[in-house]
Amino acid sequence: MSTTTQASVTLIDGKACAERVLAEVAESVKHLAAEGTIPGLAVVLIGEDPASHVYVRNKIRKAEAVGIHSFEHRFDTTLSQAELLSLIDTLNKDPEVNGILVQLPLPDTIDEEAVIQAIDPLKDVDGFHHANVGGLVQGRDVLTPCTPSGCLRLLQETCGDLTGKHAVIVGRSNIVGKPMASLLLHAHCSVTLLHSRSVNPKAIARQADIVVAAVGRPKMIDASWLKPGAVVIDVGINRVEQAVDGENKGERKTRLVGDVDFASASQVAKAITPVPGGVGPMTIAYLMQNTVAATKRQHRQAGQPALT
């Protein structure tokens, strides 16, 4: 894969890998369009959270760039749960909508779990519905969460065949840690999940060929967690304040850092994802990939000829 090298560590270029995934998606969409089907992605956004607005804008742009039709539904926080569930029911029944994404977090007045489970599993491009979560654990062909799927692609392009490698995942969230473990198991890795109750986690992590950090704590994973030559995937996106030097000394600015202490870890790791520019672009790329996959599954479910 396309990478750059800094000292002895390889920087895993998530942006370049995401562009390759998006090129594959665009080619698939072209074939689908030639057969009379254009995938459609509905995105629902509630409230004025700035980060959510940025995420949705980026998702819509990528969808349009690869030829996927996008349908935006924006609401303020007065939208009730009943109204949102009614919209989801409408989108579930709409044949032009192949993927449904409700941007999280939702207002406190709305039950996120009820909303996620209301989405048709065949249109659940986030891969969060119970049917998809259970299917992933069982190794069935289902829609899988975008971030772990993107991480797996980065690992496959960096390491090649993952069979027999020991992978340690730091963090056991339903969104990243647990589905990442299932994906790596299906890739024939030996997998260890570390969490807040793990005993001597550093010693366990130092045995790993692959370390996936998804714990939500800035710079928690440093060189002391890694064995020489490990491949490190940093899923964390943490906003931290930093003092400004020079003319504006005394002021503070916000910057993004991962769960990995990059400066320390890069002295030991064989390859590592930067933050930003590592895992982030892959999440949106796999959202587009899931939309195409959902379109094909729905076509088969309807008993229609297979789409290429």
From TrEMBL:
A GO MF annotation of the entry reads: methylenetetrahydrofolate dehydrogenase (NADP+) activity
Q: Identify the Gene3D superfamilies for this entry.
A: Leucine Dehydrogenase, chain A, domain 1, NAD(P)-binding Rossmann-like Domain
Query: Where does the Tetrahydrofolate dehydrogenase/cyclohydrolase NAD(P)-binding domain lie?
Result: 145-298
GO terms in the biological process aspect are: L-histidine biosynthetic process; methionine biosynthetic process; purine nucleotide biosynthetic process; tetrahydrofolate interconversion
Q: Tell me the superkingdom of the source.
A: Bacteria
- Short name of one Pfam family for this protein? THF_DHG_CYH_C
Q: Name one GO cellular component term.
A: cytosol
Q: Give residues annotated as binding NADP(+).
A: 171-173, 237
Q: Which family does it belong to?
A: Belongs to the tetrahydrofolate dehydrogenase/cyclohydrolase family.
Q: Fill in the subunit field for this protein.
A: Homodimer.
Q: What is this protein called?
A: Bifunctional protein FolD
